[in-house]
Structure to design on (183 residues):
């Protein structure tokens, strides 16, 4: 995802996302969530869209990933990520140049807006690749404990895929869980 606070500044929601974008804005805006997401992204190679999708699925009553589903969603996100990564690098480089280059602030803003729009596209693609049908979730909305357990299961699967057994990834994942469910 973009730097902390970027998501919350834009209220655009892609069509037919089942509330995933709004959910992501709320979760990403919680104290500590953006920092944990960005640290997982930068230090461990996590896909923030995938992390947020796991939390959204838990919130919607999906207890975990179906067989092969996480790999399918990851593969579906690969083309968008191939565009997002260099844009993120360019945006960060331009941020450092803002004091020295007069054109840098405008270019930074344009790249940031494009990166944000690509995040919305990634969410639509991720939803299309996962089984977000009511038939695959628990029939009753999850209680808080069930939602936390499901979020932990989704997060654990994502972390095992990118950084199996990595203590730092686990610590950052725990920080994200804490931020997501802090009272």
């Amino acid at each position: 995802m973009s730097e902390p606070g970027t998501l919350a500044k834009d209220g655009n929601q892609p069509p037919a996302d089942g509330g995933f974008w709004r959910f992501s804005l709320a979760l990403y805006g919680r104290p500590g969530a953006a920092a944990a997401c960005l640290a997982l992204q930068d230090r461990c190679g996590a896909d923030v869209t995938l992390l947020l999708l796991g939390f959204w699925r838990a919130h919607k009553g999906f207890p975990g990933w179906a067989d092969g589903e996480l790999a399918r969603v990851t593969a579906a996100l690969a083309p968008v990520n191939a565009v997002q990564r260099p844009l993120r690098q360019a945006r960060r480089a331009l941020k450092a140049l803002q004091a020295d280059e007069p054109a840098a602030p405008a270019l930074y803003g344009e790249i940031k807006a494009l990166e944000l729009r690509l995040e919305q596209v990634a969410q639509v693609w991720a939803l299309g690749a996962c089984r977000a049908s009511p038939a695959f979730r628990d029939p009753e909305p999850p209680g808080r404990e069930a939602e936390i357990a499901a979020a932990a299961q989704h997060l654990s699967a994502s972390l095992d895929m990118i950084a199996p057994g990595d203590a730092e990834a686990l610590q950052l994942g725990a920080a994200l869980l804490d931020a997501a469910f802090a009272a």
In short: DSSP finds seven helices and no strands in the chain. The helical segments are 20-28, 33-44, 48-60, 69-97, 104-129, 144-162, 167-181.
